[in-house]
Specification:
Elements (H helix, E strand, L loop, with lengths): L6 E12 L15 E4 L10 E4 L3 E5 L5 E8 L15 H14 L2 H14 L14 E6 L8 E8 L4 E8 L2 E10 L4 E8 L8 E5 L3 E8 L2 E7 L33 E11 L8
Parallel strand pairs: 1-10, 1-14
Antiparallel strand pairs: 2-7, 3-4, 4-5, 5-6, 6-11, 7-8, 8-9, 9-10, 12-13, 13-14
Length: about 270
């Protein structure tokens, strides 16, 4: 992240709603390359992952609300910085002299001097940031369901959720495309007029906001700040208190701007903005 002037990321997610057969029919007979479950995920580690190397989603497989947690690999806290320290050269020379003295006191002072004047700034790695969450809410799915199943096909890399509401079988398929650099959610039912849902983003990013224009829902936000280290938790116990000077770290304001777009393509029916 050194010597960069501006950092930004773009995440595109496409949602296709249709009333048609599923994209790839579930083969219950052969589950040798499929992870499958008979209830939605309630925790993050139970959700099913899809990704293309740059962006990814954890698919929870809910019925009343589908939850996709979204990630993109360039969203980090902090921003451009110059880690080199002007004081490092003189500090290292002094550290060499202390090391050659060979006493425990000198070595403890040497380590303290390194941490105070020779370590890069910021002292720790900046933190990876969550892009956000997408919630797809299905008002008609509040009634009891049957024949629920969610799965991840390890061969096709498609996460599929199927269930039945009354006489209607609902199917959702999620996959990440590397050539197109998008994540696709395909929502279908086997009877016309049976697909209806609301979509909304949420995100812990700074300055988060979302807006809609036609069939496009846009989310924007900024990565969090890197906060300087104020504790010396990494210093070895043998370093004397006299060498434990104040930590010389810096704050790095968040500079990474994230922009995610959900594009809704419907086959029949309509898309409305509320």
């Amino acid at each position: 992240m050194t010597n960069q002037t501006k950092l930004a990321t773009l995440f595109v997610l496409a949602t296709i709603a249709v009333a048609a057969p599923a994209l790839a029919a579930e083969s219950v007979a052969d589950d040798s390359l499929r992870l499958w479950y008979d209830k939605p995920a309630t925790n993050w580690y139970e959700a099913l992952p899809v990704g293309n190397g740059r962006m990814g989603a954890m698919v929870f497989g809910g019925t009343a609300t589908e939850h996709l947690q979204l990630n993109e690999d360039t969203i980090w806290s902090g921003g451009p910085y110059e880690p080199a320290r002007a004081s490092a050269r003189d500090a290292i020379q002094r550290v060499r002299e202390l090391v050659f003295k060979g006493t425990p006191e000198a070595q403890g002072e040497a380590v303290g001097l390194l941490y105070q004047n020779a370590m890069g700034q910021p002292m720790k790695e900046t933190s990876y940031q969550l892009l956000g969450d997408l919630a797809l809410t299905f008002p008609s799915n509040a009634i009891p369901i049957s024949r629920y199943r969610r799965s991840l096909d390890l061969d096709s890399a498609v996460a599929t959720t199927t269930y039945q509401i009354g006489e209607v079988t609902c199917t959702r398929e999620v996959f990440a495309s590397f050539p197109d650099q998008i994540i696709v959610v395909r929502i279908s039912a086997d009877k016309p007029g049976s697909v209806s849902f609301n979509a909304a983003f949420a995100s812990p990013l700074k300055n988060f906001k979302q807006s809609a224009d036609g069939n496009v829902l846009v989310m924007e936000g900024r990565g969090g700040d890197y906060r300087k280290t104020v504790k010396e938790w990494w210093l070895p116990d043998q370093i004397p208190q006299s060498a434990r000077t104040n930590i010389n770290d810096v704050d790095v304001p968040g500079a990474i701007v994230a922009h995610a777009r959900l594009v809704a393509n419907n086959d029949g029916g309509k898309v409305t903005v509320t």
